[in-house]
Amino acid sequence: MRIATWNINSLRLRLPLLERLAAEAAPDVLCLQETKVVDDSFPRAAVAGLGYEHMAFRGMKSYNGVAILSRRPIEIVEDRKFCGREDCRHVAARIDGLDLHCLYVPAGGDEPDPAVNDKFAHKLDFLDEMASWSRSLNGGGRPVVLAGDFNVAPLETDVWSHRQLLNVVSHTPVEVERLDGAQAAGAWVDAVRRFIPPEVRLYSWWSYRARDWAASDRGRRLDHVWVSPDLAGRLRGASVLREARGWEKPSDHVPVIVDLAA
DNA sequence: ATGGTAGTTTCACTA
Q1: Who among residues 199-238 of A has its Cβ near strand B, under 7 Å?
Q2: Does the pLDDT at position A187 exceed 90?
Q3: Beta strands A2-7 and A29-33: pairing type?
Q4: What's the DSSP call for residue A170?
């Protein structure tokens, strides 16, 4: 099973890019974030036309929104209202007996101080809830995958400059500590770093604001796929589709792809 | 230290 996660930054605007991803990488299952479409307007027919006939989505007006697109039937759909909010940051689907959770962690605003920045406080709360919630997911004997835009680049090699980003939201020690706590809570395995070792620099996001994203290459690895320990033995490969950042009218994130043995 | 771009509910908000 090939699983991809992608913050697509408006699903409707990027349907042509979704088609290109389906053609070039052929994921069996796709987790999307920032779909930015209410459920009534979800482009079901276009998505089904790409071969993803089974879908689960939670959308709202303008912001956020998550979706799981699948070639295989979806057995159960759930969502969780993290931090007591209905802001469409989570949807889960059971596919072939595997529970797949699609997550969109709050970005957290600009100021990395929860006392003055409510968005940053929300992000820290969300990551703490990810820890307590995901702890309870594991141990059920069922394989679990957590995938999405976690909006944190945890390793020094997950950013273009560890030193220059220490006080920049997405790479501050307090966020990294929270994300590490969530990972430890479920003993989650970072699937991508099983294949691309931590010594190797790796990004999944490049700002739109760069004059030339590829030349400056000031990226961050914000998008992650974590698998439950019992799934680690089924991992067969992982990649980040860097070239997608150069596609026409791109998202600022690129797809992250993980292969699991059947 | 600043400003840069993109998407959506636009002269404002989020990322």
Answers
A1: 207-209
A2: yes
A3: parallel
A4: T
